[in-house]
Amino acid sequence: MTSLLQKKLSEAKESGQIQGQLKLNEPLARYTTWRIGGSAECWYRPEDEKDLQTILKMLPENTTVNWIGLGSNLLVRDGGVKGLIINTNGVLNKLASKCSDDSEQTAGQLAKGSAKQSAERATCLITAQAGVACAIFSRKAANSGLNGAEFLSGIPGTIGGALAMNAGAFGGETWQHVVSVTMINEQGELITRMPDEFSIQYRKVAAKKVINKHDHKAPVNKARQEWFLSAEFRFEKDEQGLQQSKAEIKRLLTRRAETQPTKQANAGSVFKNPDNDYAARLIESCGLKGKIVNGAQISQKHANFIINKGDAKAQDVEALIKEIKAAVLKKHQIELETEVRIIGEY
Prior knowledge:
By secondary structure, the protein is of the alpha+beta class. The chain has helices spanning 4-14, 49-58, 107-110, 115-119, 134-143, 159-165, 242-259, 279-285, 314-332, and strands spanning 21-27, 39-45, 65-68, 74-76, 81-87, 95-99, 104-106, 122-129, 146-147, 168-169, 172-173, 178-185, 190-193, 198-201, 204-207, 226-237, 292-293, 296-298, 306-308, 341-343. A hairpin with a 2-residue loop joins strand 10 (168-169) and strand 11.
């Protein structure tokens, strides 16, 4: 049976009002790194930023909207997801930079540099849209002679997801470098916000306050939902350290492959590390490493990873998550907090 949302978006697609790719009842397992999940009521890959604005403006009030980039750090429940899934993989992937000498070039072009830039260290700003893969961002920055973005090579997601959760790896965190962000709200409006407008914590980012200055009719206590569309980052330029940055990326990727189950379907770290400890150590100390529930298994390589052995269901993963939390709480009196985002219906 076709829902009202499906009918509305199908008509908009047929009339040419929206230009992106629309799919109804689309299985989401193919879009997540866990290879798990039910179907999306509506799945949409926008043509560009303008097309994204158009579809958001036409959504019925209170439509649930979820974003998927590369599909890491995400568990989609077996019952599927109501509302709209916006998939940014392959789109919304503009990447450009501007250095302090006011010469504006693409990140790739910056690798060439000028004699003046090579002779002195400059501050460079990189603007990246939400769909840019973190690994691509990291490589572009290194190729441009910029230091500090190497840690992003170890994050198997997009800039949008990295902003939403303050993603980090190997000692670096996303929001350490953010200058400003561009948000898009449920009415397709674009808003520029500064870091001090957010509460930024370990693997958690939340808006302190959202003001409906664009809608005087909106209730004062009803904040419009906003999502990260792009961000501007600041890095230091040091082309003499180019080879060092590339070597550091290679080292970090090698370390990741050695310590994490990168060749098996997983979603990244399942739990946040508690203060002054590691989730993996706590889980392993409870004797849970290798524990299996149907098609899901706690990785033998890294206890803070749950892998899909081939036929796992979301309910299997959630069963392991529940067992891990209970065991760690009982033995260590520590309540582990999940890092992965869980969406959908049981």
